Amino acid sequence: MGRPLFLEILQKPATSCIIGICSAIWFYIQKKNIGYAHVGLSYETAIEGHHWRIITSAFSHISVIHLVFNMSALWSLGVVEQLGHLGLGIEFYLHYTLVLVLLSGVLVLGSYHVLIQKFKLEYFRRVTAVGYSCVVFGWMTILAVKQPSSKLDLFGFLSLPISFAPFESLIFTSIIVPQASFLGHLSGIIVGYSIAWGLIHGMNNYWAVSMLGWVVFVFVFSLKRSGAFDFTFIEIESVTDPSLPSVGFIASGSSRTLQMGALPLGGAELV
């Protein structure tokens, strides 16, 4: 018989919070009838300045099955928080979750850029990626390197050896879920190996807080500049070079307008 759920939550506080955030966002999206086109990440929207989508796409899901599958895998991978003796633990989990969210999103966009500009595959210009599984695949990979004897449990009845889980899951999801983002999942694996092998290292509280501050700044600035959200206390004015903006602060008003027009898309990819 397993341990009570509240004890599991206490042992995986960061994982539990992320699952709660993703679930709350999913309920909000459903309630407001917001489509994946409004929050997902695509090459076309990125070059239009919608950089905020790197964050919103990671924490959004387009169906309850999509949400449950990702959160079930994430819950199993929450064991990372309990492995402080292996150099992991809660701080490591929080620091490198931020790295995984950002770098996997950037790597996906970089892959789209190469496929579009080098190979002329225009399909990838409008493909929209949505979901948290870039990060899930990243943690799966890190755990496969750091503790290869672990197992990945899905839905309480499917168990995979963690050492093979990243590539097994990559192939499995690509076969059974046509919309699964192969590039998104592969990006998570690449960033995961980079972290596990020490190619990306040195994150501490100072760097994590600094990075988070820049993320918030770019998130708010790109929301304002792209016209997706009207922050009335920020004004963007042209300087000598019209392509370079300057930011000024003006008196705050009482109205905020959400402007999310539908975009022509090539389709959604689940990540």
TrEMBL record:
InterPro entries: Peptidase_S54_rhomboid_dom (IPR022764), Rhomboid-like_sf (IPR035952), Rhomboid_protease_S54 (IPR050925). One of its GO terms (molecular function) is serine-type endopeptidase activity. GO terms for cellular component: membrane. It is found in: Membrane. It comes from the Eukaryota. Its main location: membrane. The chain crosses the membrane at residues 12-29, 50-73, 93-115, 127-145, 157-177, 182-200, 206-223. Belongs to the peptidase S54 family. PANTHER family: PEPTIDASE S54 RHOMBOID DOMAIN-CONTAINING PROTEIN-RELATED (PTHR43731:SF32), RHOMBOID PROTEASE (PTHR43731). This is Peptidase S54 rhomboid domain-containing protein.
